[in-house]
Each structure stands twice: as structure tokens, then as C-alpha cells.
Amino acid sequence: MNRRNILAHLPALALLPLLAHPASAATRREIDAEVASALDTLRGMDNTRPLFAAAHSILVFPRILSGGFIIGGQYGEGALVRGSEIQGHYRIAGASFGLLAGAQTSGIAMFFMTEAALAALMAADGWEIGTGPSVVALDQGVQANVTATTLREPVYAITFGQRGLMAALALNGTKITRFRPE
User: Fold this and answer.
1) Beta strand 135-138 with 175-179: parallel, antiparallel or unpaired?
2) According to the model, what pLDDT value does residue 37 have?
3) pTM here?
């Protein structure tokens, strides 16, 4: 193979890790089990205790598949948890365009710190991140400085469990919609 053939097939190669999981929608039981496992993982992370203590609800997407080459996309299924109860199931999907290449799986947890932010999610027929309550993405460095007194934004997002070869999970322009799994 020459260099041109390799470059032509790079987008397909970047998406290979995403093929490890079936494309069909997960059942309610599968989603709930993955969400419970993700919450256990999150509780074990350094400095998430203030988020858990102050959040009204947590929207957890245990596995988001992302991939692309210049044009990319992401998709995942999860649940909204309040206390220990699941309040509904949600899908996250988005498309992006720009300087990107690769594929990854990761999870994201969105901590809703105010009732108003949660109400915006519940009232929307598809909530697009970036239009509504502000969402602050916390990376490992910022998480180290999170305390109960520094939490002032309506929604905080933490990614976890990244695997693959993609730089980051983009949130702006991503849409979250409620659905009813089987």
C-alpha cells in the first residue's frame, strides 16, 4: 500500500474501535447496570465528593462512542439519577467538523447543581448543550480544586473511562433527548 491508499482508509481505521460494541440500542436493564457501575467509578474518583453532595441530579452516560476524520460524531445512552432512583433515560448525540481524527469511547457524568438547570433539561424536547444552563467541563486539574464552596455553576460535566485515540469529547452542539428503552 502506498501513502495515498493509507490516507484514504484512515477514516475507516479510526472507527474500528467503535465496532467492538453492537450498534443496537441497549435495553433498560443494560443501561441501568452500566449507569450503576459508572456511578461507583465516579464515587471512587478523587474530588468528586463535593459534586455528589451538592448535585440535585446526575445525568450519566457510561459509554459514549466518538469517532471521525474531519467530520465526526458521538452517541451514547444513559440515565438521569436523583438520589438512588432513575428518573428517565436519555441519549446523547452530536456531530462535529474540524481538525479531528480518531475514535474513542468514554463516559460522561453531568451534575445538575440547581433545580432550574434540571428543569431546563426536563422541559426541553431535546436539550442542546450550549443553549441553556452553562455546562462547565471539569478536567483532572480543575477537579483537584473543587470544594463545596467553589461550586457556583448550574451544571458540571466530568468525563471518565476514556479509551481510544481521540483528543477530547466535545460537548457544545451535542443534543440530549429523552427516550424509553425496552
Assistant:
1) unpaired
2) 97
3) 0.79
